[in-house]
């Protein structure tokens, strides 16, 4: 039995002259939340993209539930490992249409859209509204609901609250945490918000210049980062006003 949702083994990615990822080794244990943090351009989004075959390594392997990603049928993999982005795209049509979008691509329909909407903290009366008329926070919840309709076991979250105001950010964050509790979904969550990383993470992955420099228990990391780049990063972020 494999206890890891995702496992990176010596993963490198080179594009032309550039090395985007350098010998990344790390594990996302099943049912845990890993916050992926680090300076802009350090390779966080690139690392996420290796988990569902949006990109493939130049060398090394990525395992999802013990199976190397390149041996998964791509549709099956993307059902199991779903991604939510910073700015949710709403398709023309109603909220209900948007919730069932992924399932329809697989020739399936959504059995209980009202319940799904409640799961992401929205009122079922919104089902018939035009999705494009929703607020940013509501759109992000619909995007989450659309992803959850596929019943993924692993969620890749790429700065999913950074386009939201503080109130909507906390609400969406709480929604994700309660889904995590009820469904046990494993998560690899990129965030620029250190206060958020402290609130949500079991484990921290700290990246710098394409390397996964620290993989640590979250409390231990914030108490005492071990590497010089992590210490510098925490100091810079604490001086900035991004963190409240
Ligand atoms: N196709 C590509 N070819 C060359 N360089 C690329 C390509 N895609 C991304 N990069 C570079 O790879 C580096 C890592 O990018 P990535 O988006 O993964 O960083 P990030 O840590 O997610 O940054 P941010 O926090 O700003 O979103 C950046 O320097 C980026 O410019």
Automatic annotation (TrEMBL):
Keyword field contains Nucleus: no
InterPro entries with a match to the protein in the record: AAA+_ATPase, ABC_transporter-like_ATP-bd, ABC_transporter-like_CS, P-loop_NTPase, PstB-like
Stored Gene3D superfamilies: P-loop containing nucleotide triphosphate hydrolases
GO cellular component, one term: membrane
SMART domains recorded: AAA (SM00382)
GO biological process terms, semicolon-separated: phosphate ion transmembrane transport
A Pfam entry, by short name: ABC_tran
Domain of life of the native organism: Bacteria
GO molecular function terms noted in the UniProt entry: ATP binding; ATP hydrolysis activity; phosphate transmembrane transporter activity
PANTHER family: ABC TRANSPORTER I FAMILY MEMBER 17
Protein's name in the database: Phosphate ABC transporter ATP-binding protein
UniProt source species: Alicyclobacillus acidoterrestris (strain ATCC 49025 / DSM 3922 / CIP 106132 / NCIMB 13137 / GD3B)
Taxonomic path: Bacteria, Bacillati, Bacillota, Bacilli, Bacillales
């Amino acid at each position: 039995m494999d206890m890891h949702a995702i496992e990176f083994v010596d993963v490198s990615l080179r594009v032309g002259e550039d090395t985007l990822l350098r010998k990344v080794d790390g594990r996302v244990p099943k049912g845990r939340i890993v916050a992926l943090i680090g300076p802009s351009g350090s390779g966080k989004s690139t690392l996420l993209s290796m988990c569902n075959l949006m990109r493939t390594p130049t060398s090394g392997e990525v395992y999802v539930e013990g199976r190397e990603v390149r041996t998964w049928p791509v549709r099956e993999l993307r059902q199991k490992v779903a991604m939510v982005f910073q700015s949710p795209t709403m398709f023309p049509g109603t909220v209900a249409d948007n919730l069932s979008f992924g399932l329809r691509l697989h020739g399936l329909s959504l059995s209980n859209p009202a319940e799904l909407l409640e799961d992401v903290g929205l009122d079922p009366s919104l089902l018939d509204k035009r999705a494009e008329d929703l607020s940013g926070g509501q759109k992000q919840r619909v995007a989450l609901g659309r992803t959850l309709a596929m019943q993924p076991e692993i969620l890749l979250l790429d700065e999913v609250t950074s386009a939201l105001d503080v109130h909507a950010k906390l609400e969406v964050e709480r929604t994700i945490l309660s889904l995590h509790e009820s469904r046990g979904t494993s998560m690899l969550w990129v965030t620029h918000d250190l206060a958020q990383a402290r609130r949500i993470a079991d484990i921290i992955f700290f990246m710098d210049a394409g390397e996964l420099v620290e993989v640590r228990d979250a409390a231990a990391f914030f108490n005492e980062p071990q590497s010089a780049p992590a210490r510098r990063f925490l100091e810079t972020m604490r001086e900035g006003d991004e963190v409240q």
